[in-house]
């Protein structure tokens, strides 16, 4: 069972890297595949941390904007999901700090 998960993760990574190459080649519409793949995970994390639906939606959107803008700097040393989740953690933390400062 564990080897199946590894194969699935490997297949997903290969598919995501293909999509990244397409986006970097100018096919911006392909980025939607990345958003659809990770949007639930990103939103749920932001929602749990921020405890506010609107702030979580805004933070999740910022994660995808930052990832899109930084896509050219993604290196295959780590999985794309790890790279994206680092952006998510920083964004959610920044949003939490900003939210606390406004209260």
Explain this structure to me?
Keywords: Sigma factor, Transcription, Transcription regulation. It comes from Saccharibacillus endophyticus. This is RNA polymerase sigma-70 region 2 domain-containing protein. It holds the Pfam family Sigma70_r2. The N terminus is likely disordered. This protein has one domain: Orthogonal Bundle (Rna Polymerase Sigma Factor, Chain: A). It has four helices and no strands. With 103 residues, it is an all-alpha fold. Helix 2 packs across helix 4 and helix 3 crosses helix 4. The termini are far apart.
Summarize the structure.
This is RNA polymerase sigma-70 region 2 domain-containing protein. This protein has helices at 2-24, 31-50, 53-70, 80-102. It is mainly alpha-helical.
Q: Enumerate how many helices there are, as a single number.
A: 4
Rg of Cα set? 15 Å
Strand portion, in percent?
A: under 5%
Structural class: mainly alpha
Name of the CATH architecture: Orthogonal Bundle
Could you report the average pLDDT, rounded to the nearest whole number? 88
| Low-pLDDT windows of residues | 1-6
CATH domain topology: Rna Polymerase Sigma Factor, Chain: A
- Superfamily at the CATH H level? RNA polymerase sigma factor, region 2, helix turn helix motif
| Number of domain modules | 1
Major sheet: none
Following the backbone from N to C, one meets helices and strands in this order, namely: HHHH
Q: What's the count of strands? A: 0
Instruction: Tell me the name of the CATH class.
Output: Mainly Alpha
Share of helical residues? over 70%
How far apart lie the N and C ends?
48 Å
Shape: elongated
Keywords: Sigma factor, Transcription, Transcription regulation
Organism: Saccharibacillus endophyticus
Protein name: RNA polymerase sigma-70 region 2 domain-containing protein
Domain RNA polymerase sigma-70 region: 35-94
């Amino acid at each position: 069972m564990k080897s199946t998960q590894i194969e699935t993760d490997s297949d997903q990574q290969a598919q995501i890297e293909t999509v990244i190459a397409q986006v970097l080649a100018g096919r911006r519409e392909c980025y939607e595949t990345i958003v659809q793949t990770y949007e639930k995970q990103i939103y749920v994390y932001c929602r749990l941390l921020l405890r506010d639906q609107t702030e979580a939606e805004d933070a999740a959107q910022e994660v995808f904007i930052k990832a899109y803008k930084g896509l050219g700097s993604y290196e295959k040393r780590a999985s794309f999901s790890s790279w994206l989740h680092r952006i998510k953690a920083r964004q959610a933390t920044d949003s939490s700090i900003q939210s606390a400062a406004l209260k």
